[in-house]
Each structure stands twice: as structure tokens, then as C-alpha cells.
User: What shape does this take?
Amino acid sequence: MAIIGILAALLLPALSGVKATAKRTACLNNVKQINVGIRMYCDDSSDMSPVTKLPWPIVSLAYKEMMKSYVGLKGRSSPQDRIFACPADTPYYEVTTGGFGFYLTNAPMHESRRYDYSSYWFNGFNALFNWNTISGGHFRLGIAGMKMASIKEPVKTVLAAEAPAFYPYSWHQPQTPAPVEFPMFDNAKDVSSFVDGHASYIKIYWDEAVRAYSFCYNPPAGYDYKWSGD
Assistant: This one.
């Protein structure tokens, strides 16, 4: 029994690692397919990326309704839209009423109607017409309403990503937030797809001194992504 216990203790971390890798692989496959769907939508929209001026749902969420037919989905969105469900998606952080803090929900994001049953967001926060700046004067970046051909660094510019990348925190390598009402942390690792079509598991920069969301500024040198299309 002692030997079995030792073997189990040795095997469990390895099995956990394999399971985590499998979830990331499935997530990468999802976001690649979503990427293709968004690009097909753009092709049929005069090369224009998704955009809406509605206060809610913002285009980072509303994009799904615009392009889901290109990935074989019809009818109303639901938790059964598996391509939009990251296997690592766990109970997520929601902004409190008034926007002054966060709380942890009790269900995955892809089971939430509020987020159109999706773990993935489009890089379109620049389209928010009534929510332009936050602390430190940082503007929200993104590529909503841009011509795909006008984006200068397609290999680095985010097209769609897991929702935590926009804060950032991570479903794959979670950390206990400190303080708890502010869950973001630097170098959170998230799955993202890019304008050129590839997808990867990347580190997201967060400036703790500013405490703006990660999509409010492009990262410094050494990171493999950017939010803006210029």
C-alpha cells in the first residue's frame, strides 16, 4: 500500500499536467476555428471587422452573433455551442454594480447568457462610444470597424482571445488575486488568435501601477501580441 501511495503521488502531477495540456490544445483549436469564422465574416463585409455602437452587448461579445453561421451554428446561442466553450473556463470574475470591484461567480462564462455563452471575446473594445477612458487616461484599444488589410502587424495583433486575456488573469494558471476585489496579475497566460490566422498560448502584460485593463495599452518589448491595429 505504501508503494502504491508513492506511485500515485508521483503520477498525479503528471496526469494533471497532461489534462491541462489537453485543455489548452482544445482551446487553441476552438479559437483557430473562431478566427476563421471572423475572417470569413470580414470577407463578406468588405474586409471590415465586426463593429457595433450599441452600449450592450458590446462588440467584443456581440461579434458571435455576427459570425457564428460561418462556423456552422444556427439559431439562438446556448451552452451547447461547444466551439465557444474553453474546457478550462472556470467560475469567472464579474464587475460589481458601479464598477468598483469584482466578485467570483459560481458558473463558467460559457454558461452565461450575459456573455452570449462564449469563453472568447473579439478584440473590439475601441468601439465603445460611451466608455472611452479609465484611470491614467488610457484609451481602450482594439480593431473593431477596421479594414483587415489596414492592420499593420497582423502576426502580432489580437483578433480574438479567451476573456481573461483582456483583464488579465488566467483559467490555465490561476493565481489568488490580491486584493481579492482586483483579480488581475502580470504575465497571466491565455490563449489568443491573431489577424494572420495563427493562435498561441501567450503571456499578457499588466501594469500594476496603472491598474487599467490589459487591453488599454500595448505591451512593452518582449511580448508577442498587441491590441491596436496601427
Summary: The CA atoms of residues 60 and 122 lie 4 Å apart. The first strand starts at residue 91 and ends at 95. The radius of gyration is 18 Å. The beta strands are 91-95, 102-108, 120-122, 158-162, 188-194, 199-204.
